[in-house]
Design goal:
OB fold (Dihydrolipoamide Acetyltransferase, E2P), alpha+beta, 153 residues, six-stranded mixed β-sheet, 12 strands
Length: 153
């Protein structure tokens, strides 16, 4: 891997994460999410974006982080990963290019992580965990998210 790739860097709590810009469709301000009380626990609710109904993934639950209420400064990232999904983050730091030669590959850190994580880079003296969102959800989760969105269109 001797390529340079662009990543959208976002924050959840005090940790920075990155996802490939090529998979980010849009970033919007925090908005009202339609709750799904009977929905799967990995989906907070639904979001209507320009007439499209999208599932809002509870990324905090998926990553085993403590729950917190959405705040005014939060952002919602719309991400193409098999299906179009969205998730809430504390903020977006910007777009960064990483040279993969300067990456710490996931298998160098822990062999089990390479399924979800491309590697770890550095941004503003902080570690950035580069997540492959397309591999982070399994097929069953994608089917569930698509069904929930379709049922509410």
């Amino acid at each position: 891997m001797d390529q340079i790739s662009c990543y959208c860097i976002f924050k959840i709590d005090d940790q920075l994460y990155g996802v490939a810009v090529s998979h980010v469709e849009k970033i919007i301000r925090a908005a009202a999410v339609i709750p799904l009380p009977e929905g799967p626990e990995t989906i907070i609710g639904l979001l209507n974006v320009e007439g499209r109904v999208l599932p809002v993934v509870n990324i905090r639950k998926k990553w085993h982080l403590p729950e917190r209420a959405m705040e005014v400064d939060d952002r919602i990232i719309l991400f193409k990963a098999g299906a179009l999904v969205s998730f809430i983050v504390n903020g977006v730091e910007g777009i960064v290019q990483f040279d993969h030669l300067k990456f710490h590959e996931a298998e160098e850190i822990h062999p089990g992580l390479q399924r979800y994580i491309e590697g770890v880079g550095r941004f503003n003296n902080s570690s950035v965990i580069i997540v492959d969102m397309a591999r982070f959800f399994n097929d069953q989760e994608f089917i569930c998210m698509e069904k929930v969105a379709a049922d509410h269109e």
